[in-house]
Write a structure and sequence with these properties.
It contains 10 helices and 13 strands. By secondary structure, it is α/β, with parallel strands linked by helices. The chain has one domain: UDP-N-acetylmuramoyl-L-alanine:D-glutamate ligase, CATH 3.40.1190.20. The protein has a 9-stranded mixed beta sheet with strand order 5-4-1-8-9-10-11-12-13, with helices on both faces. It has a 4-stranded mixed beta sheet with strand order 3-2-6-7. A hairpin with a 5-residue loop joins strand 11 and strand 12. The longest helix is centred in the C-terminal third of the chain and has 18 residues. The radius of gyration is 18 Å and the shape is globular. It holds the Pfam family PfkB.
Length: 304
């Protein structure tokens, strides 16, 4: 089914204890769309904004993964959003060294008419007011997935709550979930957030996996044990892309498919961290994705 992705496109300067990568293609919608592209034959629809420094090679990378970029605004003589960060040794914490919003500062998302019938919508981590504008332009979505961050939780809590009242699935990490709920206990936190609107909540716990909360209970997915982690940038967005990509592929949002989607999201995130930026997807194929999904199933399997 048709899948629409809205978020940022960016260039990142990334430093980790294991290396450095400058002018790296990034942004929430970039990671979401690339990840989701492995799960559906229909082109992934993307809405965003870039400057004239976003070159043909960057569009070619997206087009190679069947991503429809007609919804991306190109601002002539403008510069694309840039971010620079340094990760600590444990890779769970990072310092933002520089943020240049550039053309993203004036981003006013316009969903083309031919995108408005999208059945699956993924709202990447952007201003909740912009997320609301997008939702107002979508005709009749089957499933809306939303991400956010502590900046918006602290800075625009009322606008964020309006978004949550209109989405089906909310994805957030554990520290952000606690900040939003005001409670340190994740089970209580999940109840508080789900009462704000989203029937399904996913709390990401980094190297400790993810938790799925629904009316039917809690599902815990492990993280994949990797010996080498080079760059965690975009892993959460990649998770969201794998999650919604699987659901769009099967067209089914049942409890069972949601659980599978969490594992597919976790599988895609595990590939993401193996290289700097989104470039692991240059040589990744669906067979590898399915193999890693099976590996996730084996992690918790108990033989009779």
């Amino acid at each position: 089914m048709s899948l629409l992705v809205i978020g940022s496109l960016a260039f990142d300067d990334i430093e980790t204890p294991f290396g450095r990568s400058d002018n790296t293609l990034g942004g929430s919608s970039t990671y979401i769309a690339l990840s989701a592209s492995y799960f559906t034959d229909e082109p992934i629809r993307m809405v965003g904004v870039v400057g004239s420094d976003f070159g043909k090679e960057h569009f070619d990378l997206l087009h190679a993964k069947n991503i429809d970029t007609r919804g991306i605004q190109v601002i002539e003589d403008g510069k694309t959003f840039r971010w620079a960060g340094r990760y600590h040794y444990d890779m769970n914490t990072r310092d933002t060294l520089d943020t240049q919003l550039n053309v993203f500062a004036e981003f006013d998302p316009h969903v083309p008419q031919y995108y408005r019938d999208s059945k699956f919508v993924c709202l990447g981590n952007i201003d909740p007011e912009l997320q609301l504008k997008v939702l107002d332009q979508i005709d009749d979505p089957k499933l809306v997935v939303c991400d956010t961050m502590n900046f918006w939780i602290e800075g625009k809590p009322e606008e964020l709550k309006k978004v949550l009242a209109r989405v089906d699935v909310f994805i957030v990490n554990d520290s952000e979930a606690r900040l939003l709920s005001g409670d340190p206990n994740l089970v209580k936190t999940a109840r508080i957030i789900r009462e704000m609107g989203p029937k399904t909540l996913i709390i990401k716990k980094g190297e400790h996996g993810a938790l799925l909360f629904t009316d039917n209970g809690i599902f815990a997915a492990p993280a994949f044990p990797l010996e080498s982690i080079y760059d965690p940038t975009g892993a959460g967005d990649t998770f969201a892309g794998g999650f919604i990509g699987h659901l769009a592929r099967c067209g089914n949002t049942s409890e069972a498919e949601m659980r599978k989607a969490v594992l597919y999201g976790s599988a895609m995130a595990s590939f993401c961290v193996e290289q700097f930026g989104p470039y692991r997807y240059n040589d990744l194929d669906l067979l590898e994705v399915d193999d890693r999904y099976q590996s996730f199933l084996e992690l918790s399997r108990i033989e009779d």
